[in-house]
Amino acid sequence: MDITNFDDTLALEIPSGQAARRLCQLLAGDWAVWIEPEPAVAVVHCQLNSEPIDLAVLMRVIENWVEKESLCAIRYWLDGRDYVLQSGDFAWSSLVAA
């Protein structure tokens, strides 16, 4: 993924398109968001404003969402660097076919 064109966005690697759509629905009221499909994952982009509090609030919302979704951790890119956000535990049972 080429993230160099997105200096004023936060890019989040989400493991499924369905989860990415749920995250976009959550964030859409307060931030401009869009999904960039990748072969194995979906990347959610979130437009940032210039206030540092905006990023802090956004990251807290995403952290709570990661825990609620039982993802345990997601990778994200900000200012040309990649990071891992960890929250909660992974739901291994979600991988087992019903």
Beta-strand segment tally: 5
Average pLDDT figure: 84
- Poorly predicted segments: 1-6
Query: How far apart are the termini?
Result: 33 Å
Instruction: Report the structural category.
Output: alpha+beta
From the alpha carbons, calculate the radius of gyration and give it in angstroms.
13 Å
> Which CATH class is shown?
Alpha Beta
Question: Major beta sheet, specifics?
Answer: 5 strands, antiparallel
H/E series:
EHEEHEE
Number of helices: 2
Main sheet: which strands, in order across? Answer: 2-3-1-4-5
The outline comes out as globular
CATH topology, which one?
Alpha-Beta Plaits
CATH architecture: 2-Layer Sandwich
Tell me roughly what share of residues is in helical segments.
Answer: 25-40%
| Relative strand content | 25-35%
Q: How many structural domains are formed by the residues?
A: 1
How would you describe this structure to a colleague?
It is a single chain. The chain is of the alpha+beta class and 98 residues long. Helix content is 29%, strand content 32%. The chain is built from two helices and five strands, in the order βαββαββ. The chain has helices at 17-27, 52-68; strands at residues 9-14, 33-37, 42-47, 72-78, 81-87. Strands 2-3-1-4-5 form a five-stranded antiparallel β-sheet. A hairpin with a 4-residue loop joins strand 2 (33-37) and strand 3.
Q: Helix and strand layout, with pairings?
A:
Blueprint lengths: L8 E6 L2 H11 L5 E5 L4 E6 L4 H17 L3 E7 L2 E7 L11
Antiparallel strand pairs: 1-3, 1-4, 2-3, 4-5
